[in-house]
Amino acid sequence: MGNDTQPKQRIVTDAEAGYITRVEELAYELRIQEVMTRDVKTVSPDMQMGAVLEVFRRARISGAPVVHKGRLVGIVSIEDLIHALRGGDVAAPASEYMSERVITVKSSHPVIEALKIFTQEKVGRLPVVDDEGKLVGILTKGDITRGLLRALQSDYQEEELKKYRVSHLFADIASDRTSLILRYNVKARDFAHGGRASSDIKRALMRLGANPQIARRCGIAVYEAEMNLIIHTTEGGVIQVEIEPHQIVMETTDTGPGIEDIELAMKPGYSTAPEEVRELGFGAGMGLKNIQRCVDAMTLESTPGKGTRLEMRIYLQPDEAFSGAAHAREGKAQ
Amino acid sequence: MTLQEIITRLNLTLLTEGRDFSQVVPTSGYTSDLLSCVMAGARRQGIWVTLQAHANIVAVAALLDLSAIIITEGAQPDAETIARANEEGIPLLSTPRPSFAVVGQLWEMGLRDDGNA
Predict the structure, then answer these.
(1) Which end of chain B has fewer CB atoms within 10 angstroms, the N or the C?
(2) How many inter-chain contacts (A to B, CB under 8 Å) are there?
């Protein structure tokens, strides 16, 4: 007999989980008064059922609160109307067919309270009253759905706006030369945080709307430079990334010990990393080679006993440039 | 071939948070314990087989957009590394078997692209 007849498990993806949570959150955040229909069609208890039908038809509704002298006395729905029609009793007053048991909700309560009632009770609509008990609106499941969708839409627009603002940084700020500088301090031997700065830089570039391939190349180049600071320097160093619309310049500087023979250091496989560092998988002697592969220009300057400065440049092609860069250039050409 | 199929066939232990791995399709494979070699050789969406288990493997995988890391010979990453992998969305998979056996199994399953073809 087959033993692999386990039912398929449905795994909720993060995106779905996030979405569900947000809708649930909104059901708690949104007040009933924000989603209800304010223009309530009401009928009086002595209105004939035939006239009630006309009200429903004109307003395209399927139920209405029954109000007498400003007081809510019942609710009449399409089902009540069908009852009356079936008995040929259209001349009867609404008070005869309406249901007197009216469940109301308060306008200041969160939407979730209304949702609970909708799942527990067989009602299609809930009259909404204010704190004094005065009828101020009416609520259907459709109102809630529309309200939640509206709120989600405005959430989405806010997020889009944030993204837009960041990615248009270069377009929105007028100057002869705009650049964004990111600085990171890297401690020597801090293997636990190795790769933090490069990950952060890659993420920042993505947020700025960089081409993903460019962000990856920067990430790899800075990672190798960052690890060099961690593995080889005496006191760590600083990573500085200057982002401009047309280029990204990454630079690491440290205060020693410096490189004795740069040509030798550039050779693939050559490494001065100590054994315990190599055991961790570092010091393969590939770092500088990897950097060279990822960037368009690389400058390595070092003075033994003083320190090292490594500059890496990536030039952005017009189609890789940050949003608005082309616009900025046009502006300059005028 | 999906990451879920790989996890099932190779009987890998998932160390990070669960996700729908039947939607993740590794397109190539790479194995090395030297991080700079991985930086140079592993490809986007690739799967990386290594016996390194320290926090830096997560940074490497995140920078390269790898689809998963298979940590071999039962090497155990610490809690901070696992937390960081969760943060970066990099699945960490563990097996007591050596890298050679894992790569062999992946090859037999049909994952033969080394990303450098």
Answers:
(1) C
(2) 80
